[in-house]
Amino acid sequence: FEEYFPYTKSYITDESKYVNFQEVVEFFNYYKAGFLGKGELFSIYNQEYMKQTYLLFTFFYNSVDFDTFYKNVVWARENVNEGMFVHAITMAVFHHPQLKGFVLPAVYEIYPYYFFNTDLIHSVTFRKLYDQKFGFVSNGKYNVVYSNYTALYPVEYYGEDKLSYFTEDIGLNAYYYYFMMDYPYFVGTDKFNLYKDRRGELYMYMYQQLIARYYLERQVNFMGPIEEFDYDFPIKTGYWSKLSYYNGIPFFVRNDYYSVSKDFYYQVNLLKDYEMRIRQVIDKGYYYAQDGSKIDLRQPESVEYVGNMIFANPDSVDKDYFGFLEVVARNVYSGGAKFAKFFPSALMHFETSMRDPFFYQLYNRFLTFYYQFKSYLKPYTYEELYFKGVEIKSVVFDKLLTYFEYYDSDVSNVIPLKASGEKFFDFSVFARQKRINHKPFSYTMDVYSEFAGKGVVRVYMGPKFYDFKQLQYLKKYFVEVDQYLYDFVTGKNTIVRNSRDFYYSVRDRTTYTELYKKIMTAYNGGEKFVLDNSEAHCGFPDRLLLPKGLPSGYEMTFYFIVTPYYAPKVQQFSTYDYTYSCGVGSGSKYIDDLPFGYPFDRDIDFSYFYTKNMYFKDVLIFHSDEFKANLSY
């Protein structure tokens, strides 16, 4: 677009246009010394590229007004590595206070390469070559290419491919990507206020919930527990993603029984050292910070320190000592570092990590520190569990049904447009893919209360157990599906709650083309555009709420608990507008002040655990083999 050409020549150097010019000068100097070139492979887990990305992000972030920001973005779009540019601008839009409410296209529309396999990308570009109308609205329903799931696994591989509909789901991978962009492992301190969101605890809880949800999907497919691995033995689980980068180079493949080459064995020793230090500190129960203050690791709130310690973010107490466990492990088991040119695998990107079965094995191992820390905390007392005068009498569910459906994703970005004359928003190519979904359902809960006032309801879903004491082991596989504040009245309270209203889940994003058309219609005085948080990037995909059922029904357990309302330090939604923002760094995201995962986050004392304000409900999840078509046309 010719109007942008003047801005691509140079960035703005006027000191008055920046909030913190010192940080911007650091970027100028580093850029002149040499940044990653355009067309090169990028990964945020490469230390050098991470530093460059951070400097580019601060360059954007320090713009004093939108005009400066905009011109610098246009310059960077033309002059900086593509992967780095997308990463930095996404972070800037998410974190800059004045850019709240800006909506970027979904990451799978920006970068279809990271979400769809190479044969689909090839089909799209090939179709465009021999059919000039392909992609334009006038072509009607023919702008669709079918996409399969990509995973291919050897026979002895315990059927990991049965889970590809879950691990390769674009919604799930986008959810993880957006979480990691909201809380990047290399961003922190008072400047961004991420610590206000109980960052360390949130990190641990997010991974615990992801592993639990993956475990439930394994159980439904009769696949047994998550594999263990050891640093001293070959990694049994290889991975071939069948993805390619935008420059045509395939993702690096990790072979089965993968061994770390001897050149990188020093990194394996590093991992062992980091793990030993973290374990020792947790076992010891205290740690002296660099300023000499003593941190007591036998207090529940110290989970914040443990989380930051393991993930080594800037809010960590001593990352020089506890090391970069996560970053080093990903580099070691990606295997691409041995080449002269950096050659990342799926494990080296937020967008593709969750496709690799080893991701779950690795983070399952890291979570042992979390469980170790929690094991030293005393079990909740009867008084902490019981809500006097409140009793859950019954819970009734609708029929729970899962099914596969076709879903269309916009992959137009794969095709370069020839000239600026072509109208971009008249052009859409769709990848049609089978995805798991569930029928919307409701539950009805009857609660008797002896008092009128606020209470908080938490709902968990987990594996069926046959002996109550199995819960001690299985509690870590319970997924929190809902949490809400309720005003109880004296006597009987009947709560009807629909799955569409669940606290943690969000519906599918509107494609960017559709969103643009809706906005312009509203802008020109047509249909109103509703602000209801539906385009916000945070939230677990509603479609993946339930694990895939069986035609005859698969039994799961739902757990309900009503607790008194413990007001958070900052009232929920008091410092940000929930209708369009995710509230990152606001400190007011949470309903109450209880620990994440309560009451399953500590060991259980079965002599008094089951109180009247709790309820376990066994339900069957059915699966329909009938195919539902959720098509754009």
TrEMBL record:
The keyword Cytoplasm does not apply. GO terms for biological process: energy homeostasis. InterPro entries: Di-copper_centre_dom_sf, Hemocyanin/hexamerin, Hemocyanin/hexamerin_mid_dom, Hemocyanin_C, Hemocyanin_C_sf, Hemocyanin_N, Hemocyanin_N_sf, Ig_E-set. GO terms for molecular function: nutrient reservoir activity. GO terms for cellular component: extracellular space. It comes from the Eukaryota. Residues 379-623 form the Hemocyanin C-terminal domain. Residues 106-370 form the Hemocyanin middle domain. Residues 2-100 form the Hemocyanin N-terminal domain. Keywords: Storage protein. This is Hexamerin A. It comes from Anopheles arabiensis.
